[in-house]
Amino acid sequence: MIAQQRKIQHLFWRAGFGLTPQELNQWQGKKLSTLIDELFKESQKALPLSVVNLPKIASVNRKKMTAEERKAFRKERQEQSKNLNRAWLDRMVSGKGRLREKMTLFWHGHFACKTPLPYLSQMQNNTLREHALGKFGDLLLAVSKDPAMLQFLNNQQNRKQQPNENFARELLELFTLGRGNYTEKDIQEAARAFTGWGFNREGQFVFRERVHDFGSKTFMGKTGNFNGEDIIKIVLENPQTAQYITTKLYKFLVNEEPDTQRVKELADFFYQADYDITKLLQKIFNANWFYDEQNVGVLIKSPVVLLVSTRRNFGITFQNKDIQLFIQRVLGQMVFNPPNVAGWAGGKYWIDSSTLLFRLQFTNYIFLQSDVRVNDKDEGDVNVENFRKTGGRKLKATVAWEPYLKRFSKEKNRKKLLAELEQYLLQSNAAVSTEEFLKKWQNEETGNFVKQVTLALTALPDYQLA
Amino acid sequence: MKRRNFIQKSALATTGTMMIPAFLKAFELQRTVNPEAAHPIVVIIQLSGGNDGLNTIIPYQNDLYYQLRPKLAIPKEQVISIDKKKDLGWHPALQPLQSLYDKGWLAMLNNVGYPNPDRSHFRSMDIWHTASDADEYWYTGWLGRFLDAHCEQDCQAHTAIEIDDTLSLALKGSELKGLAMQDPRKFYQMTRSGFLKKVSEQKVKGDNNTAYLYKTLAETVSSADYVYEKSQVKQTAASYPQTSLGRRLKTISQMIQSGLSTEVYYASLSGFDTHVGQVIKHQRLLKQYAEALKAFVEDLHKSNAFDQVLVLTFSEFGRRVKQNASNGTDHGAANNLFVVGKNLKKAGFYNEGPNLSDLDDGDIKYQIDFRDIYATLLKKHLKADDKKILGKSFNYLNFI
Questions:
Q1: Which of A9, A112, A452, B380 is the most exposed place for a label (fewest CB within 10 A)?
Q2: Do B79 and B98 contact (CB within 8 A), yes or no?
Q3: Looking at the complex, does the CB of residue B158 fall below 8 Å from at least one CB of chain A?
Q4: What is the CATH number of domain B40-390?
Q5: Do A381 and B213 touch (CB under 8 A)?
């Protein structure tokens, strides 16, 4: 039996980024169905990120710049990229619209895209955010018309005379049907239908009629004078799309090992519900099996979830504003910078010797300000800034302990206090015995005891799971 | 006999080794008593950023080269003329490699690449690391899958070591991932905290993520022990250049000479993304590369450890043939690649240089798929199942 508190935490881990101590106080004892409603309510409105302005970015003509200007331009762009990265992390930490943000993160990995123009990254991110809980069909169409994706997958170069298949291929392989559910001919025909889809200097979608192929196409057994919208419609009519998306979402929200029968039922439901993402999520969060032991505390936290939730748990503010970029790079997930169009592999792929050692010492680096003797990789691209340093560095940060200590100092019985901390910090019972912590710090005053135990619990491999 | 005693004692004296299953321990000891049972070793040097191959191996009799690179071309009189028959020479900074070339220890393969080349650093590096086709996305690296295959007999992270703080995709398998460390002592110290060590001794059964995390930790700690203890066996006296690559290769040499069971070593040199002001940057990088490699090979040779080693140097792509407006070059496609070893079947230039009058959108066309080279290395040198590791069969080449 999973305790009620753990169930609540489970919901907030999966639908958000964990609970702060204050939120735990606030939500503890509420019914799950109430909390689920609350989650959707607080995510009703999409609050866009707006830290990068358009005029300085998209409308400049790089060819006419002097070397100095180009350098300044690159520097500005780099600065904006950092600001954007930080702004999104801060948003996740804030808890505002957490379900929408969590789903934006999911779609960010699904429609993985990288552009050198931060304005376009921001715009795409806002597109994902706007449709994150809406209809998948609307989301897919919006992403397909979004400048970042048009640029990343070369649809700007997709012309009638010389079709470029890049977007059409990924649309079918990675965004909707999955490998093995279409033919090479389907890709070629779909590419023809998307000819002429591009964007202008203001970052707006344009349909360039002159270069669009108005001829007849045969796509997935249907023939007609198809355009891009038609292709998307046909792809959505195929239940395989619902199956593909539902499986991926299940792995992200529930369990990396999908239960075939259950996923099939969910996919059918999703298809019948006209790809309504909110309805699918409600079904998942309200299901009893969602809170089964086999689904609780079994996902490896992604670097972003680890970073954001740890900041939330302990009210951490980093003093060096670029240090979070370093953390993301070392741990292998930097938002707005997926490895390729297939997104992050996730799960066990987050973990190797180096990332695991860093993860286990993460709170140690912050709480004790111990030296980090690790550098991120220099990948050799002149446009990507590295954070290499010889000798040690510190993750300089302030920790707002008060709310945490307030929550966890009422319990006078140390054994019970330990159990409370364990319950809050670990989503499954620790694989090692934690009784030793009691003995070790029993003579410490409560505040110190809480801090020491917290440091120890967060240094366990079990803290990496949620 | 003395040495054997020492190793046995020090290995048993540490708690870390206790976690290595008994049959593996036996295997290890066997290796130290039979130094002649040397195993094959591959050392990969990655030039990150896209090395300008055309200014590395230079077609110095080709007018097109000088026309397309008015400010960047290496003047004829400065080129080290290596192979007069093929009209190919070297950038003067590669001079330290001359002695390796003269001894027949160096092979150069021209026009190496893959179909539908990608000109993004990340994507192209991805393709080189995973060995996928350009339109496929794989989550494991080719050396990682070598580790996976290796696991059937001997499943240890230190079978592949990258000399860096973070691990490259190339060394990540689905069952097993290699180790990344700057140097054995630093890595060892990182695993020394009493708490971490204690936690690492916890056995967690099952195939869930909890067990996976604990298992990875146990492997990390025991491998850190193993590598640190073993690599103390032999300190190299050779002198290396005080550069980042020099230090990395020195660390690798020490590990090889100490008789580690590691079969793959990986090191990178970065900075090859020379869009602007290429002349000085490229010169400095090639010099660093050549000096470090020369010191490494000579060191291994002197200590009788060179026979079993093959060094492969690659970059994610070459650069555009025509120079750009900032006295640099932009991202290109096919490139040349260096192989160093003592028992090469075909040393010198493996094939002709690039045809500069037949380009693919301004870039050199590929003739040799890089996966042919991987397959050759896996099959002929590491004696591994290349088809399984690479997912299909490629052509074996005859440089080894």
A1: A452
A2: no
A3: no
A4: 3.40.720
A5: no
